[in-house]
């Protein structure tokens, strides 16, 4: 049985100047890469598969399996691309990680690139986090000077170059194929899969895109081994995970705990609800994961547990809202976000988010009708699963789950409108009519 | 338009044209910026990948992506101006109008908004407005480029939710804001002061920040080092780790020298 908090990735964050190479080396940094480079790429892929490391960027795909899709030969150049475009609302784990411990990501990159026979690695960092760019760029320079990057790394004969690349403000570029288009200097629009990046990714060459937290976990697995990693978390979702707790709690912050920890346990660590005002709704993994309520306090927050309870683990970004927050308002705000961030490539997502936001704005403004609720659900049904990427699916999550758990609150808004419309006259006649039809 | 466009296209197809000496690219960009552009391009296996950093570079000169900036990128990358424009308009960090000395971005996504981000944004817009008209999204108080000028925008989630509500000045974080603290901050900026960010390097201005986003950090190594070392360890960030330390909680101990799995050689 693990302790409630299991600092692995977050442990070095407490050390002064944790971002410097000298600190990192004092704290067992760059020991895993030496061990890894003495092994074979096949051994490393096998290690990560057996450890059961699942992608920490939201989808939870087994990292070792993903690496295994890369060709075994080197006829074409292979690329490793790190998705550091953190932007899912509520998610705030990768940026502190890169600022506090950039060398753990770099060491993970070297090991992972070796495992997939890549000699070029790009770290695609969200443009709005300049300090993160600064820390990463400095760390990459330090790693080159110390011989951890460049040619013949530590005398192993393995070569790797890392380029830190800044994005320019587009949520969609967190989607792996949109990220690749963006990295190629294009508009960040998702590609149709297949072909998957392992077959045809960056510059149409074999490519693996992994999240920051996933890759930063790799050196620890190399050093600790499969059994150590599996001593934390659950059978299908092993390991520690950074839970980001924000909103109406006493002590918001980053809490690294074994996968499968519940909100009840995490709330206890975070000092409970702020000022004792009761919990109303929360997201288990960012705004694209369907809402949970106080009924879900004991859902194990691993990939299976969250899915069985009707949501998704996502990025373990727990946004906590108390009873003072209106669900239709929150849902409207998120929908406005998706409307802004939809890249426009697929019609259902582009048009759907546009109309959904307008309906919700009207409702929150007190001009909604009961019929609007059905219209929302109908539009959601026409967006879900009908686009190249998951942005559209994410966009409908807050709406459908919001209505599922808080329909009465949406109805209440509309009833208020019907009452006030009936009482007034003239300009409001039309809305009263629409209200009367439903 | 079409004629200029045609000229640009044919110029772009002609690799012998050196953008640094081609007068039609404008005099806005000096030899140093052209050299930097070539340096950016050399970072990538394919030149087009340099477009996003090049556009940051362009903004470091003019404070926005101008017509000349688009031409500059098109020439360097052998692209049409339309191809470059299509990229510029896609990304919110590329500004189509000149930006103030400072760019203030207020997160108004749901979580920040519920904790006061909407109120912060509203107060700043009113405070920076004139004659009772609040400033709007991407509008500037003062004359763009001049000292103390401020462009304001509402931003999507800035990935600092545990420190909500947050705002950024030139992409450096100011955490746990309130309408009052935000007003105090912009007043200081207007007076030419540069308050220290909660997390991030001491403020410079929007253009200097853009130069860094293009991958160019201060040449002075001491300056560069102190920027890198500028503070980040917010209490929120290390809360879990500190709690574990206080209570003696740890991850399971790692075994000594565990071997990598054996794999059959095919």
Characterise the protein shown here.
The complex is a heterodimer of chains A (438) and B (266). By secondary structure, chain A is of the alpha/beta class. Chain A folds into three domains: 11-230, NADH-ubiquinone oxidoreductase 51kDa subunit (Rossmann fold, 3-Layer(aba) Sandwich); 240-322, Ubiquitin-like (UB roll) (Roll), CATH 3.10.20.600; 327-432, NADH-ubiquinone oxidoreductase 51kDa subunit, iron-sulphur binding domain (de novo design (two linked rop proteins)), CATH 1.20.1440. Chain A has 16 helices and nine strands. In chain A, the strands form two sheets. Chain A has a five-stranded mixed beta sheet, covered by helices on one side. In chain A, helix 2 packs parallel to helix 6 and helix 5 crosses helix 6. Chain A is globular, with a radius of gyration of 23 Å. Chain A starts with 20 loop residues before the first helix and ends with a helix. The relative contact order of chain A is 0.11. The model of chain A is unreliable at 425-438 (pLDDT under 50). Chain B is built from ten helices and five strands. In chain B, helix 2 runs antiparallel to helix 3, helix 3 runs antiparallel to helix 8 (206-213) and helix 6 packs across helix 7 (179-190). Chain B has helices at residues 2-13, 31-41, 51-62, 67-77, 81-88, 110-128, 179-190, 206-213, 221-228, 239-247, and strands at residues 102-107, 139-141, 150-155, 167-169, 172-174. Helices cover 41% and strands 8% of the residues of chain B. By secondary structure, chain B is α+β, with helices and mostly antiparallel strands. Chain B has two domains: 3-88, no CATH class; 102-216, 3-Layer(aba) Sandwich (Glutaredoxin). A five-stranded mixed beta sheet of chain B has the order 2-3-1-4-5, with helices on one face. Classes of the chains: A alpha/beta (438), B alpha+beta (266). At the A-B interface, helix 3, helix 5, helix 7, strand 3 and helix 9 of A face helix 3, helix 6, helix 8, helix 9 and helix 10 of B.
């Amino acid at each position: 049985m693990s302790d409630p908090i299991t600092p692995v990735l977050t442990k070095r964050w407490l050390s002064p100047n944790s971002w410097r190479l000298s600190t990192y080396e004092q704290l067992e940094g760059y020991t895993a890469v030496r061990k890894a480079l003495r092994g074979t790429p096949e051994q490393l892929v096998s290690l990560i598969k057996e450890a059961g490391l699942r992608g920490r960027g939201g989808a939870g795909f087994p990292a070792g399996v993903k690496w295994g899709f890369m060709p075994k030969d080197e006829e074409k150049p292979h690329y490793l691309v790190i998705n550091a475009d953190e932007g899912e609302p509520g998610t705030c784990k990768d940026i502190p990680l890169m600022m506090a411990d950039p060398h753990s990501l770099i060491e993970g990159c070297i090991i992972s690139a070796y495992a997939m026979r890549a000699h070029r690695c790009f770290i695609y960092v969200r443009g709005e986090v300049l300090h993160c760019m600064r820390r990463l760029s400095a760390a990459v320079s330090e790693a080159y000077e110390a011989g951890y990057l460049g040619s013949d790394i530590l005398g192993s004969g393995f070569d790797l170059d890392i380029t830190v690349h800044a994005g320019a403000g587009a949520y969609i570029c967190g989607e792996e194929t949109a990220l690749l288009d963006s990295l190629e200097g294009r508009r960040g629009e998702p590609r149709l899969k297949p072909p998957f990046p392992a077959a045809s990714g960056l510059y149409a060459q074999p490519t693996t895109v992994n999240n920051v937290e996933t890759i930063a976990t790799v050196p620890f697995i190399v050093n600790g081994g499969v059994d150590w990693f599996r001593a934390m978390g659950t059978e299908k979702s092993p390991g520690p995970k950074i839970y980001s707790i924000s909103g109406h709690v006493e002590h918001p912050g980053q809490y690294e705990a074994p996968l499968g920890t519940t909100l009840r346990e995490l709330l206890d660590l975070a000092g409970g609800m702020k000022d004792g005002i009761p919990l109303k709704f929360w997201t288990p993994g960012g705004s694209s994961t369907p809402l949970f309520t106080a009924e879900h306090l004991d859902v194990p927050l691993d990939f299976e547990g969250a899915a069985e309870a009707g949501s998704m683990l996502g990025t373990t970004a727990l946004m906590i809202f108390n009873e003072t927050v209106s669900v239709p308002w929150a849902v409207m705000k998120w929908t406005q976000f998706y409307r802004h961030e939809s890249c426009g490539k697929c019609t259902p997502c582009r048009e759907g988010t546009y109309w959904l936001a307008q309906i919700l704005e009207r409702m929150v403004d007190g001009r909604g009708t009961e019929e609007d609720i059905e219209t929302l659900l109908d539009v959601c049904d026409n967006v879900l699963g009908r686009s190249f990427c998951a942005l559209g699916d994410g966009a409908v999550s807050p709406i459908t789950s919001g209505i599922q758990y808080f329909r009465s609150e949406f109805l209440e808004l509309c009833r208020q409108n019907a009452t006030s419309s009936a009482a007034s006259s003239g300009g409001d006649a039309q809305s009263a009519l629409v209200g009367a039809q439903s | 338009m079409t004629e200029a466009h045609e000229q640009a296209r044919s110029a772009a197809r002609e690799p012998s044209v050196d953008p640094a000496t081609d007068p039609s690219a404008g005099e806005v960009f000096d030899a140093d910026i052209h050299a930097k552009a070539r340096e950016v391009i050399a970072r990538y296996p394919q030149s087009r990948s340099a477009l996003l950093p090049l556009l940051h570079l362009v903004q470091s000169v003019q404070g926005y992506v101008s017509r000349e900036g688009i031409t500059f990128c098109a020439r360097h990358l052998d692209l049409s101006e339309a191809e470059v424009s299509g990229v510029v308009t896609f990304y919110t960090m590329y500004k189509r109008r000149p930006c103030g000395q400072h760019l203030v971005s207020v997160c108004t996504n749901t979580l920040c908004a519920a904790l006061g981000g909407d109120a912060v944004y509203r107060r700043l817009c009113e405070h920076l407005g004139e004659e009772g008209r609040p400033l709007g999204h991407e509008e500037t108080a003062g004359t763009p480029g001049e000292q103390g000028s401020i462009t304001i925008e509402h931003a999507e989630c800035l990935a600092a939710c545990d420190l909500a509500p947050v705002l950024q000045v030139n992409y450096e974080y100011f955490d746990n804001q309130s309408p009052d603290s935000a007003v105090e901050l912009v007043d200081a900026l207007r007076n030419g002061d540069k308050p220290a960010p909660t997390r991030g390097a001491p403020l410079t201005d929007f253009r200097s920040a853009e130069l860094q986003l293009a991958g160019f950090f201060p040449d002075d190594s001491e300056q560069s080092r102190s920027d890198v070392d500028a503070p980040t360890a917010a209490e929120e960030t290390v809360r879990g780790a500190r709690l574990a330390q206080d209570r003696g909680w740890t991850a399971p101990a790692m075994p000594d020298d565990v071997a990598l799995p054996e794999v059959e050689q095919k």
